[in-house]
Amino acid sequence: MAAIEYPSTASVPRRHHEAIMEAPRPSYAEKRADAEERTRAQTELEHIVRLYNLGKPIFPRSLLKDLHEQIGQGKEEVIIPDIDDKPQTYSLRAHELCTDFPIINYSSIQRLIHFDPRYPSLLIGSRCPVSIQYTPRPNYPSSTSEEIHSAFEHINTQWLKSETCSNLGRFFVKPRFLPKTITKIVAFGLGTLGKVEFGNLSVRSYAQHAAMLTMASALRKRNNDSEGRQDIQCFAQDPYYDEKDIEFLTSLGITVVNDPQGFLEIDEHTLVFSVCPNIPVRQIVADVRWPAAMIWNSLTSEEEMDGWRRWLPNGEVFLAGPMMTDPDSDRVCEMVRYYNEAQLSDPGDYFGDLTVYARKSSSLDKV
Ligand SMILES: C[S@@+](CC[C@H](N)C(=O)[O-])C[C@H]1O[C@@H](n2cnc3c(N)ncnc32)[C@H](O)[C@@H]1O
Question: What is the pTM of this model?
Fold first, then answer.
Protein backbone atom coordinates (compact mmCIF):
# COMPACT_ATOMS: atom_id res chain seq x y z
CA MET A 1 0.00 0.00 0.00
CA ALA A 2 1.33 3.42 -0.93
CA ALA A 3 1.69 5.98 1.85
CA ILE A 4 -0.08 9.32 1.52
CA GLU A 5 1.58 11.60 -0.98
CA TYR A 6 1.17 15.32 -0.76
CA PRO A 7 1.87 17.68 -3.63
CA SER A 8 5.48 18.71 -3.58
CA THR A 9 6.21 22.39 -3.05
CA ALA A 10 8.90 22.06 -5.71
CA SER A 11 6.24 21.44 -8.36
CA VAL A 12 4.53 24.78 -7.75
CA PRO A 13 5.16 26.86 -10.89
CA ARG A 14 7.10 30.05 -10.26
CA ARG A 15 5.86 33.32 -11.62
CA HIS A 16 8.25 35.15 -13.96
CA HIS A 17 9.47 37.77 -11.49
CA GLU A 18 10.12 35.09 -8.89
CA ALA A 19 12.21 33.13 -11.34
CA ILE A 20 14.81 35.84 -11.52
CA MET A 21 14.86 36.78 -7.82
CA GLU A 22 16.61 34.41 -5.46
CA ALA A 23 14.23 33.58 -2.57
CA PRO A 24 15.81 33.95 0.87
CA ARG A 25 16.88 30.57 2.21
CA PRO A 26 14.94 29.43 5.27
CA SER A 27 17.02 29.33 8.43
CA TYR A 28 17.56 26.10 10.33
CA ALA A 29 15.06 27.25 12.99
CA GLU A 30 12.43 27.98 10.30
CA LYS A 31 12.93 24.58 8.70
CA ARG A 32 12.57 22.91 12.06
CA ALA A 33 9.39 24.84 12.90
CA ASP A 34 7.99 23.84 9.49
CA ALA A 35 8.76 20.18 10.07
CA GLU A 36 7.16 20.30 13.52
CA GLU A 37 4.04 21.89 12.11
CA ARG A 38 3.80 19.24 9.41
CA THR A 39 4.14 16.49 12.00
CA ARG A 40 1.41 18.05 14.12
CA ALA A 41 -0.85 18.37 11.08
CA GLN A 42 -0.17 14.74 10.14
CA THR A 43 -1.09 13.58 13.67
CA GLU A 44 -4.26 15.68 13.51
CA LEU A 45 -5.16 14.21 10.12
CA GLU A 46 -4.66 10.67 11.40
CA HIS A 47 -6.83 11.45 14.42
CA ILE A 48 -9.78 12.77 12.37
CA VAL A 49 -9.53 9.93 9.83
CA ARG A 50 -9.45 7.36 12.64
CA LEU A 51 -12.57 8.81 14.29
CA TYR A 52 -14.38 8.89 10.95
CA ASN A 53 -13.35 5.34 10.03
CA LEU A 54 -14.52 4.14 13.45
CA GLY A 55 -17.98 5.42 12.48
CA LYS A 56 -18.22 8.61 14.55
CA PRO A 57 -20.94 10.79 12.97
CA ILE A 58 -19.60 14.20 12.00
CA PHE A 59 -23.13 15.62 11.74
CA PRO A 60 -25.02 13.97 14.60
CA ARG A 61 -28.75 14.63 14.73
CA SER A 62 -28.49 15.50 18.44
CA LEU A 63 -25.93 18.25 17.63
CA LEU A 64 -28.18 19.81 14.98
CA LYS A 65 -31.22 19.55 17.27
CA ASP A 66 -29.37 21.26 20.09
CA LEU A 67 -28.08 24.00 17.74
CA HIS A 68 -31.60 24.53 16.38
CA GLU A 69 -32.91 24.94 19.94
CA GLN A 70 -30.15 27.41 20.88
CA ILE A 71 -30.92 29.52 17.79
CA GLY A 72 -34.66 29.32 18.59
CA GLN A 73 -33.99 30.70 22.08
CA GLY A 74 -32.61 33.85 20.44
CA LYS A 75 -29.20 33.50 22.07
CA GLU A 76 -26.39 35.83 21.02
CA GLU A 77 -23.89 33.01 21.32
CA VAL A 78 -24.22 29.34 20.52
CA ILE A 79 -22.10 26.43 21.67
CA ILE A 80 -21.31 23.69 19.16
CA PRO A 81 -19.16 20.66 19.97
CA ASP A 82 -16.19 19.92 17.71
CA ILE A 83 -15.23 16.47 16.44
CA ASP A 84 -13.77 15.61 19.87
CA ASP A 85 -16.99 16.78 21.56
CA LYS A 86 -15.21 19.84 22.99
CA PRO A 87 -17.63 22.81 23.15
CA GLN A 88 -16.78 25.78 20.91
CA THR A 89 -18.53 29.14 21.28
CA TYR A 90 -19.67 31.25 18.31
CA SER A 91 -21.30 34.66 18.15
CA LEU A 92 -24.57 35.14 16.27
CA ARG A 93 -24.58 38.88 16.84
CA ALA A 94 -24.95 41.05 13.75
CA HIS A 95 -21.99 43.44 13.51
CA GLU A 96 -22.84 47.14 13.36
CA LEU A 97 -20.35 48.03 10.64
CA CYS A 98 -20.73 44.97 8.56
CA THR A 99 -23.65 43.61 6.54
CA ASP A 100 -22.41 40.01 6.71
CA PHE A 101 -24.82 37.63 8.38
CA PRO A 102 -24.16 34.42 10.31
CA ILE A 103 -24.81 31.07 8.64
CA ILE A 104 -24.14 27.51 9.69
CA ASN A 105 -20.98 26.22 8.10
CA TYR A 106 -20.85 22.48 7.40
CA SER A 107 -17.46 20.94 6.56
CA SER A 108 -17.51 17.72 4.58
CA ILE A 109 -15.06 15.04 5.70
CA GLN A 110 -12.91 15.96 2.69
CA ARG A 111 -12.73 19.58 3.85
CA LEU A 112 -11.97 18.62 7.43
CA ILE A 113 -8.93 16.65 6.40
CA HIS A 114 -7.81 18.76 3.48
CA PHE A 115 -4.13 19.34 3.97
CA ASP A 116 -1.81 21.39 1.82
CA PRO A 117 1.78 20.79 2.97
CA ARG A 118 2.63 24.39 2.08
CA TYR A 119 0.16 25.58 4.73
CA PRO A 120 0.04 22.80 7.34
CA SER A 121 -1.31 25.12 10.02
CA LEU A 122 -4.58 25.35 8.05
CA LEU A 123 -5.43 21.81 9.09
CA ILE A 124 -4.46 22.26 12.69
CA GLY A 125 -7.52 23.38 14.57
CA SER A 126 -10.00 22.56 11.80
CA ARG A 127 -11.83 20.15 14.04
CA CYS A 128 -15.29 21.63 13.62
CA PRO A 129 -17.62 19.88 11.17
CA VAL A 130 -20.35 22.35 12.20
CA SER A 131 -19.53 25.96 12.99
CA ILE A 132 -20.81 29.50 12.45
CA GLN A 133 -19.47 31.62 9.64
CA TYR A 134 -20.25 35.16 8.48
CA THR A 135 -21.09 35.70 4.85
CA PRO A 136 -22.06 38.77 2.79
CA ARG A 137 -25.72 39.11 1.83
CA PRO A 138 -26.12 38.96 -1.96
CA ASN A 139 -26.74 42.45 -3.23
CA TYR A 140 -29.13 42.01 -6.16
CA PRO A 141 -32.13 44.23 -6.92
CA SER A 142 -35.22 42.69 -5.34
CA SER A 143 -38.06 41.18 -7.36
CA THR A 144 -41.69 42.11 -6.91
CA SER A 145 -44.33 39.53 -5.96
CA GLU A 146 -45.92 40.05 -9.41
CA GLU A 147 -42.63 39.24 -11.19
CA ILE A 148 -42.27 36.04 -9.15
CA HIS A 149 -45.91 35.02 -9.75
CA SER A 150 -45.77 35.53 -13.49
CA ALA A 151 -42.32 33.90 -13.87
CA PHE A 152 -43.54 30.88 -11.93
CA GLU A 153 -46.67 30.56 -14.07
CA HIS A 154 -44.60 30.72 -17.24
CA ILE A 155 -41.82 28.33 -16.15
CA ASN A 156 -44.24 25.90 -14.47
CA THR A 157 -46.15 25.61 -17.76
CA GLN A 158 -42.90 24.85 -19.62
CA TRP A 159 -41.87 22.42 -16.91
CA LEU A 160 -45.17 20.49 -16.98
CA LYS A 161 -44.81 20.03 -20.77
CA SER A 162 -41.15 18.97 -20.55
CA GLU A 163 -39.72 15.51 -21.11
CA THR A 164 -37.84 15.81 -17.80
CA CYS A 165 -41.18 16.22 -15.99
CA SER A 166 -42.60 13.06 -17.66
CA ASN A 167 -39.41 11.16 -16.82
CA LEU A 168 -39.69 12.22 -13.17
CA GLY A 169 -43.41 11.32 -13.04
CA ARG A 170 -42.67 7.72 -14.05
CA PHE A 171 -41.03 7.06 -10.67
CA PHE A 172 -44.34 7.77 -8.92
CA VAL A 173 -46.60 5.41 -10.89
CA LYS A 174 -46.80 1.64 -11.22
CA PRO A 175 -44.66 -0.42 -11.31
CA ARG A 176 -43.91 1.31 -8.06
CA PHE A 177 -40.29 2.42 -7.69
CA LEU A 178 -40.64 4.74 -4.69
CA PRO A 179 -41.85 3.37 -1.33
CA LYS A 180 -45.56 3.89 -0.70
CA THR A 181 -44.96 5.21 2.81
CA ILE A 182 -43.75 8.71 1.79
CA THR A 183 -45.65 11.51 3.54
CA LYS A 184 -43.14 14.35 3.34
CA ILE A 185 -40.75 16.03 0.90
CA VAL A 186 -37.83 18.02 2.30
CA ALA A 187 -35.87 20.08 -0.25
CA PHE A 188 -32.41 21.63 0.13
CA GLY A 189 -30.70 24.35 -1.87
CA LEU A 190 -33.26 24.89 -4.64
CA GLY A 191 -32.31 28.57 -4.68
CA THR A 192 -34.14 31.89 -4.46
CA LEU A 193 -36.92 32.86 -6.85
CA GLY A 194 -35.72 36.45 -6.69
CA LYS A 195 -33.12 38.01 -8.95
CA VAL A 196 -29.69 36.44 -8.99
CA GLU A 197 -26.57 37.31 -10.94
CA PHE A 198 -26.95 40.05 -13.57
CA GLY A 199 -30.50 40.68 -12.34
CA ASN A 200 -31.83 37.49 -13.97
CA LEU A 201 -34.27 34.99 -12.51
CA SER A 202 -33.01 31.42 -12.27
CA VAL A 203 -35.13 29.13 -14.47
CA ARG A 204 -33.56 26.15 -12.69
CA SER A 205 -34.73 27.34 -9.28
CA TYR A 206 -38.27 27.93 -10.55
CA ALA A 207 -38.36 24.53 -12.29
CA GLN A 208 -36.98 22.76 -9.21
CA HIS A 209 -39.74 24.21 -7.00
CA ALA A 210 -42.29 23.30 -9.69
CA ALA A 211 -40.84 19.76 -9.68
CA MET A 212 -41.36 19.59 -5.93
CA LEU A 213 -45.06 20.37 -6.44
CA THR A 214 -45.28 17.79 -9.24
CA MET A 215 -43.84 15.15 -6.91
CA ALA A 216 -46.17 16.15 -4.07
CA SER A 217 -49.22 15.95 -6.28
CA ALA A 218 -48.14 12.55 -7.71
CA LEU A 219 -47.66 11.24 -4.17
CA ARG A 220 -51.05 12.64 -3.07
CA LYS A 221 -52.75 10.99 -6.00
CA ARG A 222 -51.03 7.71 -5.24
CA ASN A 223 -52.00 7.91 -1.57
CA ASN A 224 -55.62 8.75 -2.46
CA ASP A 225 -55.73 5.74 -4.75
CA SER A 226 -54.61 3.54 -1.89
CA GLU A 227 -56.24 3.28 1.51
CA GLY A 228 -53.77 5.43 3.46
CA ARG A 229 -54.94 8.90 2.30
CA GLN A 230 -52.00 10.56 4.03
CA ASP A 231 -51.34 14.16 3.02
CA ILE A 232 -47.91 15.16 1.71
CA GLN A 233 -46.10 17.95 3.54
CA CYS A 234 -43.49 20.01 1.67
CA PHE A 235 -40.55 21.73 3.38
CA ALA A 236 -37.78 23.75 1.75
CA GLN A 237 -34.52 25.01 3.27
CA ASP A 238 -32.25 27.56 1.65
CA PRO A 239 -30.66 30.40 3.65
CA TYR A 240 -30.94 32.73 0.66
CA TYR A 241 -34.74 32.72 0.61
CA ASP A 242 -35.98 36.23 1.32
CA GLU A 243 -39.39 37.48 2.48
CA LYS A 244 -40.79 37.40 -1.06
CA ASP A 245 -39.66 33.77 -1.50
CA ILE A 246 -41.24 32.80 1.81
CA GLU A 247 -44.52 34.55 0.97
CA PHE A 248 -44.72 32.94 -2.48
CA LEU A 249 -43.63 29.44 -1.44
CA THR A 250 -46.11 29.51 1.44
CA SER A 251 -48.87 30.34 -1.06
CA LEU A 252 -47.85 27.18 -2.98
CA GLY A 253 -48.13 25.04 0.15
CA ILE A 254 -44.35 24.80 0.74
CA THR A 255 -43.18 25.53 4.28
CA VAL A 256 -39.85 27.34 4.39
CA VAL A 257 -37.67 26.21 7.28
CA ASN A 258 -34.50 27.71 8.67
CA ASP A 259 -31.23 25.83 8.70
CA PRO A 260 -30.87 23.23 10.33
CA GLN A 261 -34.59 22.46 10.74
CA GLY A 262 -34.80 20.83 7.30
CA PHE A 263 -32.42 18.10 8.44
CA LEU A 264 -34.46 17.55 11.61
CA GLU A 265 -37.63 17.09 9.54
CA ILE A 266 -36.16 14.03 7.81
CA ASP A 267 -37.60 10.72 8.93
CA GLU A 268 -38.14 7.30 7.38
CA HIS A 269 -41.25 8.60 5.51
CA THR A 270 -39.37 11.46 3.83
CA LEU A 271 -38.29 12.05 0.26
CA VAL A 272 -35.19 14.28 0.28
CA PHE A 273 -34.82 16.47 -2.81
CA SER A 274 -31.54 18.32 -3.22
CA VAL A 275 -29.96 19.87 -6.31
CA CYS A 276 -26.36 21.12 -6.33
CA PRO A 277 -26.44 22.57 -2.80
CA ASN A 278 -23.57 24.63 -1.42
CA ILE A 279 -23.29 22.37 1.62
CA PRO A 280 -22.60 18.63 2.01
CA VAL A 281 -26.29 17.63 2.15
CA ARG A 282 -25.61 13.99 1.28
CA GLN A 283 -23.03 13.55 4.06
CA ILE A 284 -25.31 15.30 6.58
CA VAL A 285 -28.31 13.13 5.64
CA ALA A 286 -26.20 9.96 5.85
CA ASP A 287 -25.36 10.88 9.46
CA VAL A 288 -28.69 12.38 10.55
CA ARG A 289 -31.38 9.93 9.38
CA TRP A 290 -31.84 7.65 6.37
CA PRO A 291 -34.97 8.73 4.48
CA ALA A 292 -37.45 6.67 2.44
CA ALA A 293 -36.01 8.11 -0.77
CA MET A 294 -33.66 10.72 -2.14
CA ILE A 295 -33.53 12.57 -5.43
CA TRP A 296 -30.13 14.20 -5.47
CA ASN A 297 -26.91 14.50 -7.43
CA SER A 298 -25.59 11.20 -8.78
CA LEU A 299 -22.70 9.65 -6.93
CA THR A 300 -19.17 9.76 -8.32
CA SER A 301 -18.23 6.51 -10.05
CA GLU A 302 -16.34 3.92 -8.01
CA GLU A 303 -13.35 4.24 -10.34
CA GLU A 304 -13.13 7.98 -9.73
CA MET A 305 -13.57 7.48 -5.99
CA ASP A 306 -10.71 4.97 -5.99
CA GLY A 307 -8.55 7.65 -7.56
CA TRP A 308 -9.18 9.83 -4.48
CA ARG A 309 -8.23 7.13 -1.97
CA ARG A 310 -5.08 7.74 0.10
CA TRP A 311 -3.29 5.68 2.71
CA LEU A 312 -1.80 7.06 5.88
CA PRO A 313 1.40 5.55 7.30
CA ASN A 314 -0.67 4.01 10.13
CA GLY A 315 -2.73 2.06 7.57
CA GLU A 316 -5.90 4.20 7.73
CA VAL A 317 -7.53 4.78 4.34
CA PHE A 318 -9.41 7.96 3.53
CA LEU A 319 -10.88 9.90 0.62
CA ALA A 320 -8.90 13.04 -0.17
CA GLY A 321 -11.54 14.28 -2.61
CA PRO A 322 -13.45 15.19 -4.61
CA MET A 323 -13.28 18.73 -3.24
CA MET A 324 -16.73 20.06 -4.00
CA THR A 325 -19.53 21.53 -1.90
CA ASP A 326 -21.59 18.31 -1.70
CA PRO A 327 -19.09 15.48 -2.16
CA ASP A 328 -19.72 11.76 -1.73
CA SER A 329 -18.05 9.92 1.08
CA ASP A 330 -17.59 6.29 2.05
CA ARG A 331 -20.56 6.73 4.39
CA VAL A 332 -22.81 8.06 1.61
CA CYS A 333 -21.75 5.17 -0.64
CA GLU A 334 -22.45 2.68 2.15
CA MET A 335 -25.90 4.21 2.74
CA VAL A 336 -27.01 4.06 -0.91
CA ARG A 337 -26.26 0.32 -1.00
CA TYR A 338 -29.59 0.01 0.87
CA TYR A 339 -31.48 1.83 -1.90
CA ASN A 340 -32.54 0.96 -5.43
CA GLU A 341 -31.34 3.60 -7.82
CA ALA A 342 -32.20 4.93 -11.27
CA GLN A 343 -30.80 7.93 -13.05
CA LEU A 344 -33.22 10.71 -13.98
CA SER A 345 -32.91 11.69 -17.60
CA ASP A 346 -33.06 15.50 -17.78
CA PRO A 347 -32.97 16.69 -21.40
CA GLY A 348 -34.31 20.10 -20.28
CA ASP A 349 -31.24 20.59 -18.06
CA TYR A 350 -33.37 21.72 -15.14
CA PHE A 351 -31.23 19.78 -12.64
CA GLY A 352 -28.08 18.33 -14.18
CA ASP A 353 -27.07 14.85 -13.17
CA LEU A 354 -29.64 13.50 -10.65
CA THR A 355 -30.38 9.99 -9.43
CA VAL A 356 -33.52 8.71 -7.72
CA TYR A 357 -32.81 6.45 -4.72
CA ALA A 358 -35.59 4.38 -3.13
CA ARG A 359 -35.10 2.47 0.10
CA LYS A 360 -35.13 -1.32 -0.40
CA SER A 361 -37.89 -2.71 1.79
CA SER A 362 -35.51 -5.46 2.96
CA SER A 363 -33.22 -2.79 4.52
CA LEU A 364 -35.73 -1.05 6.78
CA ASP A 365 -34.26 -2.43 9.98
CA LYS A 366 -31.08 -0.30 9.35
CA VAL A 367 -30.74 3.12 11.07
C1 LIG B 1 -25.25 26.32 -6.62
S2 LIG B 1 -26.74 26.88 -5.90
C3 LIG B 1 -27.89 25.74 -6.62
C4 LIG B 1 -29.20 26.37 -6.86
C5 LIG B 1 -30.18 25.48 -7.64
N6 LIG B 1 -30.48 24.27 -6.93
C7 LIG B 1 -29.62 25.10 -9.00
O8 LIG B 1 -29.45 23.91 -9.27
O9 LIG B 1 -29.37 26.01 -9.81
C10 LIG B 1 -26.55 26.30 -4.25
C11 LIG B 1 -27.71 26.60 -3.34
O12 LIG B 1 -27.43 26.01 -2.07
C13 LIG B 1 -27.99 26.89 -1.11
N14 LIG B 1 -27.52 26.63 0.25
C15 LIG B 1 -26.40 27.12 0.86
N16 LIG B 1 -26.38 26.73 2.16
C17 LIG B 1 -27.50 25.98 2.37
C18 LIG B 1 -28.06 25.35 3.51
N19 LIG B 1 -27.46 25.40 4.70
N20 LIG B 1 -29.22 24.68 3.38
C21 LIG B 1 -29.86 24.63 2.17
N22 LIG B 1 -29.39 25.23 1.05
C23 LIG B 1 -28.23 25.90 1.15
C24 LIG B 1 -27.58 28.26 -1.65
O25 LIG B 1 -28.28 29.32 -1.04
C26 LIG B 1 -27.90 28.09 -3.11
O27 LIG B 1 -29.22 28.45 -3.39
Answer: 0.89
Separation of alpha carbons 358 and 367, rounded Å:
15
For the chain (length 367 residues), average pLDDT per consecutive 10? Answer: 38 43 74 81 89 96 98 94 96 75 94 80 79 85 91 98 96 82 96 88 97 96 72 95 96 98 97 97 98 96 88 86 90 96 96 96 61
Pocket test for ligand 1, best of 192, 201, 237, 238 (most atoms within 8 A of CB): 238
User: Does residue 239's CB lie within 6 angstroms of at least one atom of ligand 1?
Assistant: yes
Domain ranges for the chain, please list them: 42-136, 145-298+327-359
**Ligand 1 centroid to 55 CA: how many Å?**
28
Task: Please give the Cα distance from 250 to 235 (Å, whole number).
Answer: 10
Q: Quote the radius of gyration of the chain (alpha carbons, Å).
A: 23
Whole-number Å distance between alpha carbons of 28 and 130: 38
Distance (Å, whole) CA 272 – CA 64? 17
Ligand 1 centre to CA of 168 (Å) is 21
Ligand 1 atom nearest residue 191's Cα = 27
Whole-number Å distance, alpha carbon 237 to ligand 1 midpoint, is 9
Helix, strand or coil, per DSSP, at residue 267: coil
Question: Could you tell me the fold of the domain covering 145-298+327-359?
Answer: Rossmann fold (3.40.50)
